[in-house]
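Please produce the structure of this protein holding N-carbamoyl-L-aspartate.
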Amino acid sequence: MATNHYYGRDVVSIRDFTKDELEFLFSFTDRISTLSRIERSELGKGITLGSIYYEPSTRTRMSFEAAITSIGGSSIGIADPKSSSIEKGESLSDTIRIMDLYSDVLVLRHPLDGSGRFASELSRHPVINAGSGSEEHPTQAMLDLYTIYKEKGRIDGLRIGIIGDLKYGRTIYSLVYGLSNYDVDIRLISPPTLSIRKESIYGVENKLKIQEYSNLPEDILSTLDVIYVTRIQKERFPDIQEYEKVKGTYTIDQSTLDKSKTDVSIMHPLPRLDEISHSIDNTTNATYFRQAANGKEIRAALLALITNEDPA
Ligand code: NCD
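Below is the modeled complex.
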């Protein structure tokens, strides 16, 4: 196996990973997906994953747990701060220090931007950022890029629409950073009040072709290879009335598919509210459940590579 650059490493931002490193992860993911259950369970034997979730999670937490279990490790963690000493007032730093004592690798989701970096500086063991405020969610982008590559056979040359809450959605920042390694054409669609934070894409925008819209023109819709839909991030709005103004702005349904390429991939990090109609769930275009399944595979590969120098 080529040198494993993931060994012992934090995953705080997808910007810390080169294109070669990302592609190494994708091919390692392909490889372990074909292993037998027994072979796979050798990869992470004896490894304990410690997770701390200060915000709700279904897919990220469950896929990390399923992933570590599938490679033979086990997990401990705080799924709800109310059930831990956080409720008694224990600080983030003490919580991290303690979980670091009991774990070989840590996963943290926290409402503050910068929380992932903070944890990585405190912890002796590698830290994986599972969502830091509206800043980043790097493993989501890893599974998103992997999904695009699996569904389309390539990433270069694609035209990708990203639609919804581009201001607060952390998944789209990590996705845009990850896509900046490729030759892609990005169309951003959001209400003007939820457009992308320019200061956060400073430095990558010159590597990407990006155009912004408040409504998706039909002549553009018909050229998109991927439509990546996001939830309006209600919990991040300082003013709930502002949320009320923009909720339910976009819905992807059969009429959207009728105007799109026949093989367009509809992606979503989930959870969805009303931005994708359930009526398209059984179409081949609906990629979001396959995407969620890929989350377990990418995270299993990532955990194996982080905790094992030569997991071949
Ligand atoms: C996302 C998140 O937490 O940022 N969820 C996820 O991890 N799949 C997206 C969201 O909550 O809208």
